Amino acid sequence: MALTGPSAVRAGLARPSGWILVAVNLGILLAVLYFGWSVFDVMFLFWAENVIIGIINIFIIALHITILLGGFLTMALGDQTWMLVILILLKTLVDLAMHGRERQKYIKEQWVTS
Questions:
Q1: Of 21, 26, 62, 96, which is most buried with the most CB atoms under 10 A?
Q2: Can you give the C-alpha Rg of the chain in angstroms?
Q3: Is the residue at 93 inside a domain?
Q4: Rounded CA gap, 13 and 7, in Å?
């Protein structure tokens, strides 16, 4: 079940990283209000943040680009249903493996902190 609304916010604040996120964004808000940061300054900072996150998640991005290119190749070659089936199966397996790794990290963190 996906968290939405107040329960999602409470879940986010249950971890130290959630509080760091709030502190950083309050810092940006203070920079706008007290130091006169412009829209460009804030948007550049958010862009840089996305670049950093993108670099960290480059393998996930590469996976999705590969999937898109594979889909376009499948369309270009005509009705290759079997290629599409293989593409979907491979994507599902890779996504499951990545999800399992992330869950293992989370379970280990919970084990250590409890």
A1: 21
A2: 20
A3: yes
A4: 10
Flag whether 107 is in a domain. Answer: yes
Looking at the predicted structure, is the pLDDT value of residue 21 above 70?
Answer: yes
From the number of C-beta atoms within 10 Å of its C-beta (0-12, 13-18, 19+), residue 83 rates as middle
> Is there a domain that residue 90 lies in?
yes
Q: How many domains does the chain have?
A: 1
Is there a contact between 37 and 27 (Cβ–Cβ < 8 Å)?
no
Share of the chain above pLDDT 70, in %: 71
For 81, the domain range is 57-114
Query: What is the distance between the alpha carbons of residues 18 and 26, in angstroms, rounded to a whole number?
Result: 12
User: Contact, 88 vs 71, CB < 8 A?
Assistant: no
In this structure, which long-range contacts are made by residues 62-65, counting pairs with CB atoms below 8 Å and at least 24 apart in sequence? 63/91, 63/94
Q: How many CB atoms lie within 10 A of CB 45?
A: 14
Q: For 49-60, write each residue's pLDDT tens digit.
A: 888 877 877 777
